[in-house]
Design brief:
Residues 47-66 bind DNA. It comes from Streptosporangium vulgare. InterPro entries: Homeodomain-like_sf (IPR009057), HTH-type_TetR-like_transc_reg (IPR050109), HTH_TetR (IPR001647), Repressor_TetR_C (IPR004111), Tet_transcr_reg_TetR-rel_C_sf (IPR036271). This protein has 245 residues and is an all-alpha fold. The chain has 2 domains: 5-81, Homeodomain-like (Arc Repressor Mutant, subunit A), CATH 1.10.10.60; 94-179 and 212-240, Tetracycline Repressor, domain 2. Helices cover 62% and strands 0% of the residues. It has 11 helices and no strands. It has helices at 5-10, 27-41, 48-55, 59-62, 69-81, 94-111, 127-139, 147-178, 182-196, 203-210, 220-240. Helix 2 (27-41) packs across helix 3 and helix 6 (94-111) runs parallel beside helix 8 (147-178). The longest helix has 32 residues, at 147-178.
Amino acid sequence: MEVPESVEIAWGLRERPGKGPKRTLSLEHIVEAALRVGSAEGLPAVSMSKIAAELGVSTMALYRYVTSKGDLLMLVTDAVLGPPPPLPEPGEDWRQGLQRWGGAMRTSLQRHPWSLRIPITGPGIMPNHVAWLEAGLRCLRGTRLAPDTKLAALLLVNGFVRTEVALLADLQDALDASKVTDEEALSGYARSLARLTDAERFPEIHELLEGRVFDMPGGPDDEFAFGMDRILDGLAALVTGEPPA
């Protein structure tokens, strides 16, 4: 597979452009501008012309640093992810390590949830992506898991984190558009369910309504912790060779 020029630049395998149409322009500035545009207007607005306008340069000036929009988006996703959390400390078990790994990834992605709409074109090859992979594998060092199972475990956690962040971002966008609070949205949902369903046809839903589940305190952090714990419970069965309690 041919490595894109921007990937080689990110890894320090190729010299960065020297003199350009604007002396203050750099790859870092271009990526930062892309992040600003994406945060303000969403992924559809992240175009080479829009980024050039943000930086006050011509569109052609950007192509001295990135060969295509696709390469730029690879750099953006790597910047969003950022460096991984510190490697496991002595005495930290695999479960604590993966809990910290998944939580740190969630925090990074929550800063720019719009970036999750960038199409995935292949395995992560950028510096931060590879560093995160190494950090996750280090958490599983010393377990009985085979190498391919370790990789599958990290993909499972990664998928859960990405889905959770994307779902919450979509829900927040909907709340912002409707101008209601979380509590108002949930109570309205409960009232709609009560009106539209009957206990005979939907007994389980009515058990939730009677238990006032939608009125209970809690939030995304609690739901994330619940999901992570269940995933780690399942992985523990592989690590220990015993079924979950």
